[in-house]
Amino acid sequence: MKKKSSEKKTWNKIAIASAAIILIVAAISVMFIYVPFAEKNKSLRSDILRERDKNVLIGKIKALNKHLKVYDKRIPESGGVSWLLGEVSNIASKEKVEISSIKPGSPEDYNLYTKLFVIVDVFSSFNQLGKFIAMVESSEKILKIESVSMKRMDIDEGFDKGSGKFKAFDVRANIVISTVVSKE
Predict the structure, then answer these.
(1) For residue 122, how many other CB atoms are within 10 A of its CB?
(2) What is the pLDDT of residue 115?
(3) pTM surpassing 0.70?
(4) How far apart are CA 59 and CA 140, in angstroms?
(5) CA angle, corner 104, sides to 126 and 100, nearest 5?
(6) CA distances, 31 to each of 24, 38, 144, 176 (Å)
(7) How many CA atoms lie within 13 A of 70 on its CB side?
């Protein structure tokens, strides 16, 4: 009986020693394998998130670049005021708007671009003036109406009803038109 009890004690000691060794190996495995792996995993996740954010940003930049290319084609290459004067004159002749005077304004300098102005005095019917403004604003190159001031011609003191050149509700307008040209 003593033999059985001593065998049991031996098995108990072996079981306890085995359990202790297993626990020690598990603790060492956790400390030296799992913890560094978990830290590396967190680091990799943060790297993945950073890369994803970079890719999203690069995608946005590419999309904006495509939009800029569209607008870049619409910006004239340093054509100067003479180009703008010619463009406005062509649009006026297409819409049968009579230009009484056209003069350049002073350019404004912006790093890579220059903003050019022309001041145009025109005589036309109200409909022709509206079409002229619409043509300027929808031009292939970027043209902008900065300001418009108009007055009916029959209100002027010097209006001659019998001249036949202008009708009573025709208008005289002063229009400031601008564009941006590239310096490159």
Answers:
(1) 23
(2) 86
(3) no
(4) 28
(5) 40
(6) 10, 11, 70, 76
(7) 5
d(CA 166, CA 163): 7
- What string of H, E and C letters represents the secondary structure of 109-153? EECCEEEEEEEEEEEECHHHHHHHHHHHHCCCCCEEEEEEEEEEH
Nearest CA to 78 among 4, 182, 170, 158? Answer: 182
pLDDT of residue 85 exceeding 90, the answer is: no
Q: What angle do CA 36, 42, 46 make, to 5 degrees?
A: 145
> What distance in Å separates the CA atoms of residue 117 and residue 107, rounded to the nearest whole number?
6
* 177 token code pair: 């038109």
Residues 6+ apart with CB under 8 A from 31: none
CA distance 95 to 135: 8
Q: Is 100 helix (H, G, I), strand (E, B) or coil?
A: strand
Q: Which of 158, 181, 157, 159 is nearest to 168 (CA)?
A: 159
- Name residues whose C-beta falls within 8 Å of residue 19's C-beta, 6 or more positions apart in sequence: none
pLDDT value of residue 164: 53
Tell me the H-state helices in the chain: 2-29, 35-74, 80-94, 126-137
